[in-house]
Amino acid sequence: DIQMTQSPSSLSASVGDRVTITCRASQSISSYLNWYQQKAGKAPKLLIYAASSLQSGVPSRFSGSGSGTDFTLTISSLQPEDFATYYCQQSYSTLTWTFGQGTKVEIK
Amino acid sequence: QITLKESGPTLVKPTQTLTLTCTFSGFSLSTSGVGVGWIRQPPGKALEWLAIIYWNDDKRYSPSLKSRLTITKDTSKDQVVLTMTNMDPVDTATYYCAHYSLVRSCFDYWGQGTLVTVSS
Prior knowledge:
The complex is a heterodimer of chains A (108) and B (120). Chain A is mainly beta and 108 residues long. In chain A, 0% of the residues lie in helices and 49% in strands. Chain B has no helices and eleven strands. In chain B, strands 2, 4, 5, 6, 9, 10 and 11 form a seven-stranded mixed beta sheet that branches. Chain B starts with a strand and ends with a strand. Classes of the chains: A mainly beta (108), B mainly beta (120). Chains A and B meet through strand 4, strand 5 and strand 10 of A and strand 5 and strand 10 of B.
C-alpha cells in the first residue's frame, strides 16, 4: 500500500499568515494527489485535485504543488473560515486509496 | 447539482452486519467514468477509504477489510449499498459516501456522513 505522511500534524497560525502543509508519499504517485478540508462535524470538501488544480468555487488563496513523492498545500493569507483539518489523499493506485493522517490548523 | 446522503442504523451490536445505503442525485452511476466510494472516520481520527464501485460494476475494497465488505449498486434507484460483516466496537465511525470522478481521480462530492456506533 502507498502510505501518505503529512506534516505537521497541527499548527497554530494567525489570520493573514501564509500557511504551508506538506504531504509525502511512500512511493512516486506522479500528480495523483488531492487535498481536502474538513471542518468540525462536517464532511470533507475537495480543495485541490491532481496536485495543483483548484476545485471550482474554492478561493484562490489555496494552491497546491508537487509531483512524485512530495507535495504542498499553501494558504496564501489565512482567513477565519480556513481553520480546519486538511487531508491529502493519493489516487495513483487504482486498487486502494489512502489519506494522510491530517493537519489541524488552529488559531494562534 | 450532485448530492449524496447516507442512511442506515446508528447503533449495531458486536458481530452484527451493518448495511448502509447511499442515495444520490445529480448524476447516474451508469455514466462512464463515475464511481461511488465509501470512506469512514472514527471519532477524532483520520479518514479511511473502504470501497468503491464504478459505472461498469467494477469494485475495489480496502485490503484490510476486504473479507468483511460488499458494495453493490442499484442504478434504477440511484443507490449504492455497503455491507460490513462482523462489526466490532473499533468500527465505530462516521461513514461517508462520495462521488468519484475517474477523469479527475478524486472524491469531489461527499455526503453528510452517518455516525455508526458499535456497542452491546
